[in-house]
Design goal:
The protein is an alpha+beta fold. The protein is 54% helix and 15% strand.
């Protein structure tokens, strides 16, 4: 993918974003873009975390979000006229939601044993208490 980078200046900080150009995106430039957008990943993960049970770890959501950010940097196409951080928000949130779907679709050990029949015993003709 041919990319270069342009720096978008905001009042607080300059954030590099990938742009289409003649040269490939270097590893250093990609790393700079990713590090600059890590606060965005953490903010999205925290917002998603607000609606989840306490058992879901924020770090797991951040990890999935960083993978989404990697994907956003690799697949971003500036010729489409989309601002990078808006594109990245959708990719990050989507990666987090995908990881949640994958983790909830796996059966727990208790459920998998019950569904396989290994944990079940043959029911007796009448209950013990009767």
């Amino acid at each position: 993918m041919s990319t270069a980078a342009v720096v978008v200046k905001s009042p607080e900080v300059s954030i590099p974003v990938p742009m289409q150009a003649e040269g490939p995106l270097t590893r250093e430039r990609r790393d700079t873009i990713i590090v600059a957008h890590l606060p965005l990943v953490r903010a999205i993960a925290a917002r998603v975390r607000e609606n989840l049970p306490v058992q879901v770890e924020l770090d797991d959501l951040v990890h999935a979000g960083v993978l989404g950010l990697f994907d956003a940097v690799e697949k971003f196409d500036a010729s489409k006229g989309v601002v990078f951080h808006l594109y990245a928000k959708h990719r990050i949130r989507g990666a987090i939601l995908d990881s949640l779907r994958q983790s909830t679709s796996k059966p727990s050990p208790r459920n998998s044993a019950a569904s396989s029949g290994a944990a079940r015993t043959k029911p007796s003709a009448r209950p013990r208490w009767a």
